[in-house]
Amino acid sequence: MRTPFLLFAAPLLAFSISCQNMDALNYLKAVKDGRLHFADGSALDIPHWDDPAWTHFFCVRHAEKEDHEPYDPGLSTEGEARAEHLGRIMAEAGLNAVYSSPSRRAKLTAEPVQRRGHTAPVLEYEPGDQEEWLLELLPKSRGKKIMIIGHQNTIPHLLNQLNGGGFDFDNIPNYDFGKIFVVATKGIGETEVIELRY
Asked: What pLDDT was estimated at residue 78?
């Protein structure tokens, strides 16, 4: 049985590989020196890492939210632990910026990434204006490494926009908070995506 591990999404390019020990390989442990490091000690080069014509985005949905707060919830205990874990993963990634939606849960997910990565304060973007924001961001972010923290629908929408349109990426299931998308892009339609779990 084939189990998808990596999905590179670019025009006319998609593939998956089979792995015997998916649990060990599929979980990202660190981003360091242009490589993705996994729990079993293996590593994978991030495409185009040292090429200044390419921008790299690390895109995640916010961590688990508190259920008892109906308006703008914070993070649950599990979500706080996940946000700290994400901060450790990204600590040596060399991020130039961290962007978050204005929601409290997204900002609280972004904070450990910003703190551990020693970047400038977290910047906000408005998901309702995400398409225009991305088109403004791309030309001024060449060669940079940027974390984007959004929502179960906004992150797939951003990936589909980078991919040139279409519906390659579905909304993230409501229960799933453990996906990270590693993106290398030269612009709309010139994008590669690695989909992982952390």
From this structure: 97
**pLDDT single digits (tens) 55-108:** 999 999 999 999 888 889 999 999 999 999 999 999 999 999 999 999 999 999
Q: Identify residue 76 by its one-letter amino acid code.
A: S
188, amino acid identity:
I
CA 97-100-104 angle, to 5 degrees, is 140
Per-residue pLDDT, 68: 83
Domain ranges of the chain: 22-197
Chain CA centroid to CA 22, Å:
20
- The SS3 call for residue 155 is helix
* CATH class held by domain 22-197: alpha beta
**Rounded Cα–Cα distance for residues 181 and 167 (Å):** 16
| CB distance 171 to 134 below 8 Å | no
How far the first Cα of the chain sits from its last, in Å, is: 23
Contact 179, 90 (CB under 8 A): no
Sequence length of the chain is 198
